[in-house]
Amino acid sequence: MRLSWWKWLTILLLLYTVVVGMLSEVPRLAILNETIRNLYFHVPMWFGMIVILLVSVVYSIKYLRNPLSRNDIIAYEAAKVGILFGVLGIITGMEWARFTWGEFWSNDPKQNASAIGLLIYFAYLILRGSFQDHQQRARIGAVYNIFAFAALIPLLFILPRLTDSLHPGNGGNPGFNAYDLDSRLRAVFYPAVLGWTLLGVWVVHLRTRLEVLKQRFYENA
Amino acid sequence: MLLKEVIYLMQKDFVLEWRQKYAFNGMLLYVGSTVFICYLSFSLRFGSLEVPVWNALYWIILLFTAVNAIAKGFAQESRGRLLYYYSVVSPQGVILAKMIYNAALMLVLSLLCFTFYAVVIGNPVQDVGMFLVTIVLGAIGFASSLTMISGIAAKAANTGTLMAVLSFPVMVPMLLMLMKMSKNAIDGLDPSVSLDEALVLLAINMIVVTVSYILFPYLWRS
Fold first, then answer.
1. Are B183 and B134 a contacting pair, CB within 8 Å?
2. To 10 degrees, the CA torsion angle through B119, B117, B142, B159?
3. DSSP state of B187
4. Distance between CA A42 and CA A98 in Å, rounded?
5. Of A167, A66, A32, A190, nearest in space to A111 by CA
6. How far apart are CA B42 and CA B44, in angstroms?
7. CA distance B172 to chain A (A)
8. B157 CB near a chain A CB, below 8 Å?
9. Would the pTM count as exceeding 0.90?
10. How many whole angstroms separate alpha carbon B133 and alpha carbon B137?
11. What b/e readout covers B147-168, taking b as 16+ CB neighbours within 10 angstroms?
């Protein structure tokens, strides 16, 4: 099996993340304790989601400039993978919150914002589903995708900073950056972000190839 | 050129609204009966609502009114008329005219809603001037984001559901800012406290209007 270099890199990074992330020394902090290892799994999901949704928006813009069905397929598949990352991020976050904040859902502004972000992208899927015509579906889907992303920016980057959050680093909670995101955490965190994001890109890549092949097959059948 | 088009299209929208008064009256009745249902279901004869509930209820009523009022913006235009516009005016003119017209409509509706709401349920607002500023910002914000969404939803089959599903999550940041601002106005806090929220609202509005302005031509073409 021949894989290109970045796929090997993904495999190595994720192996490193899981093995070293589980076994390495981590700072001992009150309340957080061992759950600090969630930093390697929960936080990269959001980085991955943002990057992959950005890919989706870029390909939506590309589609509007140049209506090739390949651009539309990439935008759609990337949005779906972005949703997957978002759902995983919410689940890992809720599990973590159960042990540190005491509740699965604590009405935290960041939790709410991510839930709303997911609602926006579910709406995108519904919108796409309600068109029969391929070109119309692609064009209007692209328009909504760009519009929704523009609406998502204030939601994710401005509002949580205006209100206090229970998340580490907000509202008087100890931040990872303050004194404890030391070199041990960084050494796993950055590779984890890169690894998970590359995994998302890989999934999008595979799904796109599959969809393009399917389309070609149905056209010739 | 664009300005002329916008003014002309707005005039057309106002004239149409005037000729089909039943649609506008329908919206008024919608607001009125919603407020009255809220009054009855909270059984307010025995006491008044608490301030946060009053505030939240007001904006939720407005949200639903806005979705209903603005949804018909593009849906009511017949196919032939849309084709006619397509040949004579620019898409930017259409979207700007619709936004301004919808903002005016929302302003009238939300002011009437406030009046009726205050009469029936009671008026705890201490700083009415600031509250009115919030209403103006809200009307502009609702109109700008919902106009584009109604354009998108009008293209699909199940316009009604789609309109709600597409618009609610997009409206949330705006709605939260509005509720915070109006809460400050109700409590009679100094206007400088609400400056942050007002600026964020204006920024969101600007993003939404710009994005709609750029994207609408692509929507229009299909």
1. no
2. -130
3. T
4. 14
5. A167
6. 5
7. 8
8. yes
9. no
10. 6
11. bbbbbbbbbbeebeebbbbbbb
Contact between chains at B148 and A154 (C-beta distance less than 8 A): no
Q: Is B116 left (phi over 0), alpha (psi -120 to 50) or beta?
A: alpha
Query: Of A104-113, B96-105, B108-117, which gets the smallest average pLDDT?
Result: A104-113
Q: Which two tokens stand for residue B176?
A: 């939260």
Q: Which residues of A touch B222 (CB under 8 A)?
A: 135-136, 139-140
- Start-end of H helices in A24-133: 42-65, 69-100, 109-129
Nearest to A127 among B162, B208, B218 (CB): B162
Q: Please give the average per-residue pLDDT across A86-106, as a whole number.
A: 86
Q: Which pair of structure tokens corresponds to residue A17?
A: 């993340």
CA distances from A65 to A61, B24, B141 (A): 6, 39, 28
User: Cα–Cα distance between B209 and B87 in angstroms, integer?
Assistant: 24
Within 8 A by CB and 6+ apart from A44, the residues are A189, A192, A193, A195, A196, A197
Chain A positions touching B212 (Cβ under 8 A) are 147
pLDDT, tens digit, 9 for 90 and up, residues A139-187: 999 999 998 888 877 777 766 666 666 676 554 454 555 445 567 777 8
ipTM of the complex: 0.82
* Tokens matching residue B26: 């329908």
Burial class of residue A23 in the structure, from the number of CB atoms within 10 Å of its CB (0-12 exposed, 13-18 middle, 19+ buried): exposed
For A32, B74, B217, the CA distances from B159, given in Å and listed in that order, are: 47, 10, 20
> CA distances (Å), B32 to each of B27, B71, B104, in order?
9, 19, 19
Interval A55-79: pLDDT, tens: 999 999 999 998 888 899 999 999 9
